[in-house]
Design a protein that fits this description.
The chain has twelve helices and 15 strands. By secondary structure, the protein is an alpha+beta fold. Bound molecules: phenylalanine.
Length: 462
């Protein structure tokens, strides 16, 4: 949900990939951890950083039972660490779980193999802690891409982070021998705070790889790959033929149009928009009309051949897509605020207690509690970089789910002092009860203190 577009960027120049192939043992370890759910939380050898040298004590951080050396990149917060254990996509009778089940059941029915079994397999228990190589380099994300900034992602240290998209596992799963798979999981992005943005949300990614033989029966006389790599154009990569891209994009688009119909009803209005992702070309976004407005539903495209070949499937061409589950669930069930997904209040959870994920449900708001609005203004420290996302994180850590929205309402530069001032408006509202003025003031003051302490700002009203 939060900034679903963050992996897009137009007109960028790809820099060479940093070569850091997963070793055979790393791939084996990954496959083991996927196939045995009992072991899936056990630390993988390949992801355990080296112990610090005895002579210089290094600060460490323990997340999901694994130790990480802290460095200048570390910006993960205790609130986020706590949320990692919730795994909403695995909680039966949770709207995120129900949407996952509906997507999975659509793919199971749509693609059936020779023996009558589903062709796609589902991975919904992969560790959200990934390397920056998995999240970015393996997907050709350029070194200067904004999603790599500390202000946009949650880092354990400069090598490990919380995945910012489930696409992070794509290369490893292909390298382990899979051709058709879905990945479902929690993803983490630092972002603004409002009713549709939350730093943790859920995605479903898919990959389908096909060989020459599977795509074109011999008698067609058509080829998937150019004999000699051709020119890369707006319509195709150098390695692929026009015929292959045409048939693959037809498959991809009809599959996703039908998925949108399965989720939103046969009459849903949709349109295709050209897009850019570093890991697919050509790329598109599917938008659907909801309550009179176009809504971006998912990103997709023909997989970059370089990624597929590097993962050991160079004889195949593939399509991939990624979709945000909260976006879908909010529309399908009429859920007005993204924070509701995190509610443990039975008046919310009870409404999604159904055996069949296809049961039609419309969320009934229990009641709406009043909002309380407070502003906070401060001078930004003259030296060093200040990013609003650092402040949003503090607000969220201190205020938790009492925070409905934070927005920058005013900023100016003092002409004499040459100092910058920011004013943020914080809207407080609890989903489950009325907040008292005292309670809000206490939290508001604490946010101010934390901002002074952690960001070095100077409060304008003390
Ligand atoms: N990972 C992309 C995102 O989070 C979505 C995507 C996945 C696009 C796979 C293309 C292919 O925005």
């Amino acid at each position: 949900m939060a900034k679903i577009v963050s992996f897009k960027m137009k007109n960028i120049i790809l820099r060479p990939l940093c070569v850091q192939n997963p070793t055979c043992s790393a791939v084996k370890a990954l496959v083991c951890s996927m196939s045995s759910s009992a072991n899936s939380d056990a630390p993988l050898k390949s992801t355990t950083p080296a112990l610090p040298p005895k002579t210089s004590p290094v600060a460490t951080l323990t997340v999901s039972g694994k130790q990480f050396e802290k460095d200048s990149y570390t910006n993960i917060t205790p609130t986020i660490i706590k949320q990692m254990s919730r795994k909403l996509h695995q909680q039966k009778c949770h709207p995120i779980y129900l949407i996952k089940e509906r997507i999975v059941s659509y793919f199971y029915k749509k693609y059936i193999g020779r023996t009558g079994n589903p062709v796609f397999s589902v991975y919904d228990n992969l560790d959200p802690i990934v390397t920056t190589h998995q999240n970015f380099d393996s997907l050709l994300v350029p070194h200067n891409h904004s999603s790599r900034l500390k202000s946009d992602s949650y880092y354990l240290n400069s090598n490990y982070m919380l995945r910012a998209h489930t696409t992070a596992h794509q290369s490893d799963l292909i390298a382990s021998g899979l051709d058709n798979f879905l990945i479902v999981g929690d993803v983490y992005r630092r972002d603004t705070v409002d009713s549709t943005h939350y730093p943790v949300f859920h995605q479903c990614d898919a990959v389908r790889l096909q060989t020459q033989h599977e795509l074109f029966p011999e008698e067609y006389g058509l080829n998937v790959f150019e004999k000699k790599p051709d020119r890369r154009t707006d319509d195709k990569q150098a390695e692929h033929t026009v015929d292959a891209v045409r048939i693959l994009s037809y498959q991809l688009k009809t599959t996703l149009q039908d998925l949108a119909k399965a989720l939103f009803g046969q009459d849903v209005e949709y349109r295709w928009v050209e897009a850019y992702f570093p890991f697919t070309h050509p790329s598109w976004e599917l938008e659907i009309k909801h309550n009179g407005e176009w809504l971006e539903l998912l990103g997709c495209g023909i997989m970059e051949h370089q990624i597929v070949a590097k993962a050991g499937a160079g004889d195949r061409i593939g399509w991939a897509f990624g979709l945000g589950l909260e976006r879908v669930a909010m529309r399908v069930y009429d859920i007005p605020d993204i924070r509701l997904f995190w509610s443990t209040d039975p008046s919310f959870t009870k409404q999604f207690t159904v055996d069949d994920p296809h049961t039609p449900i419309k969320y009934q708001p229990v009641s709406v509690y009043p909002i309380c609005v407070n502003d906070i203004s401060f001078w930004i420290p003259p030296e060093g970089e200040f990013n609003s996302n650092d402040f949003f994180d503090i607000v969220r850590s201190v205020g938790g789910d009492m925070i409905e929205e934070v927005s920058l309402v005013d900023q100016f530069l003092h002409p004499k002092k040459m100092m910058k001032s920011h004013c943020y408006r914080i809207t407080y509202r609890h989903m489950e009860r009325t907040l008292t003025k005292n309670e809000v003031n206490k939290v508001h003051n604490e946010i101010g203190c934390k901002a002074v302490e952690a960001l070095g700002v100077d409060l304008r009203v003390k």
